[in-house]
Design a protein that fits this description.
Length: 366
């Protein structure tokens, strides 16, 4: 994983043009991660980012987190460590924020780009804000990586598959992305995929694109409206679990530690350079199934109610009945395979929500 070698003109480059790789620098900066590597993680104080940071620090890398804490939390990160630097910075802004990004990129060997507004419900209600931020942040990050020729991995999303299809989704599928507000998030991510592919094809900068499907585990916040922590929070506080629509929608979920392992299996992988790569779980559940598993996890308390999509999101909402990853490309190019179950992801998220709730309850009762 960390020692996959990339040399000029090896690996599959998706362009018919020969990329312009200046040989010496290319070899030095081919995205090989190893102990001592200097790694920037944008969005590193968030859910997936903080688990990635923990793992990189554990592997002996020097990690620089750039995050504006709009969604992430400083306490998600490991405490004092000489291997970890943190800067609170809005990566979508100009001026001094761009200068901080630039300095971090100039010193780094690799960058993981995770910083993003997230959530389909936000995209649905705040289309302009969502896509503007995805693009502003992405343009600044890609531009800095281009100027400093820094290898980069972009976290894209299964939302680029739009309405999707009835079978597991493959990277080669034609994308039926709609113009409805929900798809502003996917459209923003797809635009970033083009920017990152351009880094490889036009600028000769090594880059990787990972399409994440649903991820779950510790530190995933119910405030984002994503289903696992939202259901758990409802179950833990005695509220009904609200299912939008029939509950027949099918999804796969990936434990966050398997997501981090997948990101590391892609980063620096010469077979996947410039490719789109799906990263998702393989245990498929319906949303109604998920609700019952979550009720079982909290001891069977609580109930499930159904609300039509239109009542929650209005008539313009587009629902996606099936969203499941085909991970064949990643499996063929690496030894990655998920090892944790959905129940473990649910259990970890529950534990974290309860830990978070406990100090709050103590301060209210004192
Ligand atoms: N969690 C999932 O299931 C999932 C699925 C598909 C794709 N993704 C992608 O993975 C990445 C991480 O997602 P996550 O679930 O950890 O979300 P998250 O909200 O926990 O993490 C995103 C981080 O980005 C930071 N951020 C947002 N705007 C910023 C800005 N302008 N400047 C600096 N930092 C900023 C937030 O503070 C947060 O810490 C995102 O790019 C997301 O689109 C996640």
């Amino acid at each position: 994983m960390f020692d996959s070698r990339v040399r000029p003109n090896t690996g599959r480059i998706p362009s018919r043009r020969t990329p312009r790789f200046p040989a010496g620098r290319w070899i030095r900066r081919a995205g090989q991660l190893r102990p001592g590597s200097r790694v920037v993680v944008t969005g590193g104080a968030g859910f997936i980012g903080s688990h990635l940071v923990e793992r990189l620090v554990r592997e002996g890398m020097r990690v620089h987190v750039l995050d504006d804490l709009s969604g992430g939390r400083r306490e998600n990160l490991p405490g004092e460590s000489r291997w970890l630097t943190f800067d609170r910075v809005d990566l979508g802004a100009g001026g001094s924020s761009r200068a901080i990004l630039d300095r971090a990129v100039a010193k780094a060997d690799f960058l993981f780009h995770l910083a993003s507004p997230i959530g389909v419900s936000k995209a649905h209600t705040q289309r302009l804000d969502t896509i503007t931020h995805i693009l502003r942040i992405g343009l600044n990050v890609v531009d800095a990586c281009r100027r400093h020729r820094l290898p980069v991995l972009l976290t894209s999303s299964s939302e680029v598959y739009g309405r999707g299809s009835l079978r597991p989704l493959r990277e080669t599928d034609v994308l039926p992305l709609g113009t409805e507000a929900r798809f502003s998030y996917g459209a923003g991510k797809l635009a970033l995929e083009h920017l990152v592919a351009g880094l490889v094809e036009d600028a000769g900068v090594p880059a990787w694109i990972v399409r994440l499907f649903n991820v779950a585990g510790r530190r995933q916040r119910p405030e984002t409206g994503v289903v696992v922590p939202t259901f758990l929070k409802a179950a833990l506080t005695g509220m009904p679990l609200v299912i939008h629509g029939s509950g027949d929608q099918r999804r796969s979920f990936l434990h966050v530690s398997d997501a981090v392992a997948g990101l590391l299996a892609v980063a620096g992988n010469s077979k996947l350079i410039g490719e789109r790569v799906n990263l998702g779980g393989e245990e498929v559940v319906t949303i109604i199934d998920l609700a019952h598993r979550i009720l079982a996890e909290v001891g069977g308390r609580g109930r499930v109610i159904h609300k039509p999509y239109t009542k929650v999101f209005g008539s313009a909402f587009v629902q996606v009945p099936i969203r499941i990853a085909d991970t064949g490309r990643l499996r063929a190019a690496s030894a990655w395979c998920p090892v944790s179950t959905l129940n473990e992801a649910i259990g970890d998220c529950r534990e974290w929500l309860q830990e978070r709730q406990a100090p709050l309850e103590a301060s209210i009762s004192s």
